[in-house]
Structure formats: C-alpha cells, structure tokens
Request: fold
Amino acid sequence: MRALLVKRLSPDLSGADLAEIETPSPKDGEVLVRVRAASLNYPDLLMTQGKYQFKPELPFVSGLEMAGEVVEAAPDTGFTIGDRIMGGAKTGAFAEYVALPASSVRPIPAGLDFHAAASMGAAYHTAYVALVELGQLHPGQTVLVHGASGGVGLAACDLAKALGATVIAATRRGDKLHALAKAARSDAAILNTRRFREQVAELTDGRLCDLVFDPVGGDVFDESTRCVTFGGKLLVIGFVAGRIPEIAVNIPLIKGFSVVGVRAGEYARRFPERGKRIAEELAVLVGEGRITPHVDRVLPLERWREAFEAMQKGEVIGKIVLEP
Reply:
C-alpha cells in the first residue's frame, strides 16, 4: 500500500516521502480500515521535526486521524465489514489502510461525509475538553479564540457558538479576517496585534473574556493575560508560535483568573468514560446541525507536501484533507 513514511526527522520535510509498504494486519482487538480521508493536524507537522511531545520510533507512517470503511474486524471488536468509521491514533492515518484498536474508532455520525468526519475528531475533542470539561463554559459567556483559522481554533469557535457563547475569533493575518468571521460564525474577528486587549475591551464594553482559548503561546499568551475577566480561565492548548511563555504568578493572583493546561488526548485516556461521553455529545450536536467541521481543501495523498507547507505558512482556514 502507499503511505507517507517518515524515515528521519528534519526541519524541512525532507525526511518524509510516499513509499510502498506492507499493508498492516490487524491484531486482536483491532480493525483494518480502508482510509477514505485523513485530515492534517499541527502535531503531524511537528512529529516530522521531532518537536512534538510524542516521538514515535522511526520510521513511522504520519497521520493522526482519518475516516474510512472497515475491511477486516474480529467479532469481539463490535464492528463489521463495511462499517463507516472515524478516529485514529498518533500515527498511521496517511496511508491507504490502517490497523487501529477498536477502542480508538467510532461510527461516523449521520450527516457527515468522510471528509468532514476525518476533520472532526481531534479538533472538536480538544475544543470540548478545553471549553466544557475544563472551562465550564455556559451560555452568555464570552470566549476569545486565538489561532481561530486553524482546525482546532475553528472547532473551538464553532462549538462555543453552538453552546450559546459570544465568540471573538482572533488571527494574525489581516487577509483572513472576513473569511474567518464567516467560517467561524463568530460575533467578531480581530487581529493579534501587539496590543489586542484594546480591541477585546471595546468589543466587550470593558468586561473582557470569561475564557481565552490559546493554541498559539508566545506574545499572544502574554497579551491574553490582560484579556481575562475576574474569575475567568486562560486555556493553554499549545505553542504554535514557538516560544513557550512564562507568567509571574502574581498576575493571575491579582487579576483573579486561572491558567489551565489542556491535554485533551491524555484527558480521554485517564477518564475513558468521559471521553466516550464527549464523543456521544459531539455526535448529537452534529446530528442537530449545530456544529459542522470546516474543510479548507481536499488534496490527493501525493500532494501531501503542499498540504504540510500550507499549514506551516498559516494559509489554511479549517482543515486540509488528504485522500489516499
């Protein structure tokens, strides 16, 4: 089968390329899936560079999540041949076939095609853990979402809006503001200027934000500490900007807010019943038409480099999907 194989770590994707490898054989408790669509996530890029916290043994097949059809399954997995499923693991999705534990896949909710299903899992799970499980979001609150044009950020905007929040979508690119506001269904879209607090204060009549969703880090985190209202939460998702910021603890003390670390995958592993419930609740929201993953573009697997480079340059609104 064809797969995107990472043979060595490199800063410029030179250690990865398409290769012909053996089709995997499912082990006990696993299903073999014909991949119909696989979405690109920022950790996929980081893993090719060795910069992600999970460092798979080389060589490895890239790709966190996918959607497809079951082609082989043991009776004890609960799946049968032909089932449409979505899910994934930390690697393996950018291939024609992938073998996965039955526990890491689930049926595709009604109303989702393969492209949308492949784009939903990691992004919306992260958004739900951050905003609902840890942020305790409720209707009427104001949420500032950084990196809102990316897959995770856009999912956070979509989910927060569906749950009754006022959403301020933030991006570092001025040419994306109009398209972002439309895709995110946000109430406002702002630029991550050096001093964006003034924009936030004006939009909220000085009240600021109950929740700040930050997958960016760096200077964005620093300024975000000035955007959280008393009793609010600054949700740390990641550090796309590269610099891991620091904070003097007197700042959250005096301003009365919490800094909350979000590890959505680990959350589901530690609390599997909650992870299952999150998937069920997201499926309900999809079925009701209240959330919809946004696919920026669909590319064949052989154009994987174009997809990775577009993500690296920040040219994407939502998700890029690769078709093996």
Summary: The mean pLDDT is 92. The radius of gyration is 19 Å. DSSP finds ten helices and 16 strands in the chain. The first strand starts at residue 2 and ends at 6.
